[in-house]
Specification:
110 residues, mainly alpha, 5 helices
Length: 110
């Protein structure tokens, strides 16, 4: 559940990052082109994803711990996206491998 919430936080911040006018954007994938063409729908989607990730953190943890973990994760993921996306270090294969590795660790230690 935590891995899914982490993935949703990443997707939410990534969609909100692509609506920024000052960000250096690359349009390698099809959904990135769609996000550039539809900024209002992308913002709404990003905010809904953020709210659902927060709800998942609250469901998994308590109010205080879930809120703290959500904001820690949001700050970490946000800073990594802002730093690594202009360098084109964020690609789908590396993210999928990282997600699978984290999911295996979560299920193994849970």
């Amino acid at each position: 559940m935590i891995t899914i919430a982490s993935l949703i936080v990443f997707l939410a911040f990534y969609t909100l990052y692509y609506t920024s006018k000052r960000a250096v954007l690359s349009y390698d994938l099809g959904f990135e082109k769609w996000m550039k063409k539809n900024p209002k729908q992308t913002k709404i989607t990003g905010l809904i994803l953020l709210a659902s990730a927060y709800a998942m953190w609250l469901f998994t943890k308590s109010l205080g711990c879930g809120t703290l973990m959500f904001f820690i994760q949001l700050m970490t993921v946000g800073s990594l996206i802002i730093i690594l996306t202009p360098l084109k270090k964020v690609n789908s294969k590396a993210l999928l491998a990282l997600l699978v590795f984290i999911a295996i660790l979560e299920f193994y230690y849970n």
